[in-house]
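> run fold Erythromycin esterase family protein
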Amino acid sequence: MANWISNFTSQEDLSAKHIRPLENAEDLDPLLERIGDSRYVLLGEATHGTHEYYTWRAEISKRLIEEKGFSFIAVEGDWPDCYKINRWIKDLPDSGSSITEVLQSFKRWPTWMWANWEVAAFARWLKNYNSGLASEEKIGFYGLDVYSLWESMEVIVNYLEKEDPDIAGLARRVADCFEPYRKNDSYATAYRGLNQRCRNEVVQLLTEVRQNIEKYKDEREAGLNTELNALVMKNAEKYYEAMASFDSSSWNVRDSHMVETLNVLMDYHDHHSKVIIWEHNTHIGDARATDMAAHGMHNVGQLVRQQHQDEGVVLVGFGSYEGSVTAGEFWGGEMQEMRLPKAIDGSLEKILHQFEGTNKLLIFNDNSPLKEIFSEKLGHRAVGVVYNPHSERGNYVPSIISDRYDAFLFIDKTKALHPLHIKPDGHLVPETYPFGI
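> ok
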């Protein structure tokens, strides 16, 4: 790969024909062409704290919504929190006077991941766009993640006590099972305290909710909200068990849950629905093209390709050479703006920087020379909400880039995300594997 450009007569030839400039929304035309009629578009990020990743994903999403009729956005966030954004952009009753008010309710560390200026700006755009649509056509915004056990339990108990007293008793029993472990920050500790009756009742609750879903009509998506909060509770139990075993299986449980949630959302919307997914590269880039596969791990990108390739799936990765990033030095640590150093030698990011030092769009079509050029394994930087700049080399995932993604956006120099400076409430969530992503 050191002579990665040697197959071409000149750098100009490669640039003009195969590597596209990326400076404004119009430069996304080749990506929109590559997406075509696909129903699943997965947009990544190399960190959870970079301004440009959020703004470029927003630009892509706007064009997909306006030009290709995409139905909703699903993100690497908790269901209850993101459902508050969903209600606000659809202008539902008592949904909040402003997006800032909504985002101030995001209390769990890392608050900056969704409570930031970039998300607020995009949410305002979505609300304005939705204002001209019928209620059943409004664009949604949903969370796919599994972490919101306590919040999901509270939502379900409160809702069912009002709407379905027969099931509410079961929901209260489930909540009572978990209550003794609520003060624990470790989900694995919580799991080890559960007895088999509690686990069975979690599954029973989800079954009951799904069987009675048609009864929950007080708000258009009330049934969906109840079902997916119950699904979080069910799969959180699996996640705790995996965490207690101290192996990589917790990663698989988490990503399987996100795909299961995604499939419920697609079934809920009509058969013409299309989804945009926002998650870290480590989730949306096909795990089979990385060393994750050797560790028995799968991810969202792999599962969506395997389950829905015939409906059109496009995986879009992101990366940068240097800049700054919002992160913490350890789990639960103070949010800070940190320097993102220049990419290491031999990495994807260093190679792309050396080629003209500009922003770039790469499309890995089967007939493109880029498919072959990037078929060798390269280090590809991955930074989560936790970042230790003193072990930079450990932040690179060996990847066959042209198999991991269908397209790649390279931003040469980036800057940190703009948080709304909300302090977390101190309730931590479990480590993820790789740590912090």
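DSSP finds 17 helices and eleven strands in the chain.
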